[in-house]
Specification:
Elements lengths: L10 H20 L8 H21 L1 H11 L4 H11 L8 H10 L2 H11 L8 H7 L5 H13 L16 H14 L4 H7 L5 H14 L4 H10 L6 H10 L4 H8 L6 H11 L5 H7 L6 H12 L29 H11 L9 E2 L2 E2 L14 H13 L13 H4 L2
Antiparallel strand pairs: 1-2
Length: about 400
């Protein structure tokens, strides 16, 4: 299509660029802490997204025409993509639309906008974020403070609204408080009383990042209480814990509501002393898959899973087919016989790499993203001085 004063484009290609940008960022957000990606995978994914954004930049006003109506369509990833397009013009000519949406749009749209602004704040939007950080609306305030903390803005005066009743606002607020070092043990204890698992998880990660004192003690107390034990606290104990916490994780396996979390936490704890139990559990109908994953996480063994039986067993009415591959107990046991002598039992291991107690491992950027994050939170939670790594930033910014 050619219109005087506008670059000649094929409009359906421009729309495809936008749809792909939307899709790729949705995938990226869902895989930031996944076991299936490493930092190199994240970088490759981001390069694809950037190529589509380049195509939209070249389309100029045509891309703006596509992005404007989609900014407030109600989808988080779509709002993210639209914000990237509207903020791509360095003149800031279209930033006013983003500002209006940030002030008035529904939570999913605000969430998409703040995710986009994390990766670049136009000069015209920076002062607005500072203004909104002091707003009475906890969602707007939390979203603004989230961006300011994420890009490491100095002298952020507003306190994150940690009393926000809306779960999304609380998650953003507590994450920002962790980045700003504005959390204490009382804040974390209060967060662990919240009903939403995502909120408790966000609080624990933020507390580890901030190096909140006695965080492991708080996790032990919440994970072992007689009634309503907290799976999120148990999971974080696997990240933060020491050798003595292996006994707590083993005991938690006797509680049905905690068993799968406890097995996964043994993998995060990374102690070879747990391996014989994990090998035994690979034959368990309920815990076999998480046990094989935990073994894989400690050792890096790639062939911990076998093939599905053929012909497939019949599926009962109303039941879904299990998509997990079955564990391979014999292969795991044989691998451990070869590997056992090389993994010191008094050390911590992740995917076959030794994790030092006082610094990031040399393999840090090669670890799967979930293990990489846990290693980082472990050191920060123990108040070890390590480089400032923003685990949700673009991969090139994260590389050490």
């Amino acid at each position: 299509m050619h219109v005087p004063g506008r670059p000649p484009v094929m409009l359906d290609i421009v729309e495809e660029h936008f749809d792909e940008l939307d899709f790729l960022h949705e995938q990226r957000e869902g895989n930031l802490f996944t076991p299936d990606w490493r930092l190199a995978d994240l970088a490759w994914h981001e390069e694809r997204a950037e190529a589509h954004l380049d195509g939209l930049r070249l389309a100029e006003s045509w891309a703006v025409d596509i992005a404007e109506p989609r900014l407030c369509s109600g989808e988080t990833a779509t709002a993210l993509a639209a914000t990237l397009v509207l903020c791509a013009d360095e003149s800031g000519a279209h930033a006013a639309k983003v500002i209006d949406a940030l002030r008035t749009a529904d939570p999913p749209v605000v969430d998409g906008i703040r995710r986009a602004l994390r990766h670049g704040v136009p000069a015209t939007i920076g002062p607005v974020l500072r203004e909104l950080a002091a707003a009475r609306d906890p969602l707007r305030a939390a979203a603004a403070i989230d961006v300011l903390a994420f890009v490491r803005t100095k002298d952020v005066d507003a306190r994150p609204p940690l009393d926000a009743p809306v779960p999304l606002a609380f998650e953003l607020a507590v994450g920002a408080a962790g980045r700003l070092g504005a959390l204490d043990a009382a804040d974390v204890a209060a967060a662990l009383e919240r009903a939403e698992p995502r909120a408790r998880r966000a609080a624990l990660r933020a507390a580890a990042l901030a190096g909140v004192p006695r965080l492991a003690e708080l996790c032990r107390a919440a994970a072992t209480r007689p009634t309503d034990p907290d799976p999120e606290a148990l999971s974080m104990l696997g990240t933060l814990g020491d050798a003595a916490d292996e006994a707590i994780l083993r005991a938690a396996m006797q509680r049905p509501e905690l068993a799968r979390t406890a097995v996964a936490a043994l993998g995060a704890l990374g102690r070879p002393t747990a391996v014989p139990l994990l090998i035994e559990l690979t034959r368990d109908d309920d815990l076999g898959v998480p046990a094989a994953l935990a073994y894989q996480r400690i050792t890096g063994f790639r062939d911990a899973f076998g093939e599905k039986p053929w012909p497939r067993p019949e599926i009962g009415e109303g039941e879904d087919e299990n998509e997990d591959l079955p564990p391979a107990p014999d292969a795991i046991a044989a691998d451990w016989r070869r590997r056992e002598a090389h993994l010191a039992k008094d050390r911590t291991w992740q995917f076959g790499a030794e994790i030092p107690p006082d610094r990031l491992p040399t393999s840090f950027d090669e670890l799967p993203l979930h293990a990489r994050a846990d290693v980082y939170w472990r050191l920060r939670g123990r108040r070890v001085t390590v480089p400032d790594v923003e685990l949700e930033a673009m991969a090139l910014r994260q590389r050490l």
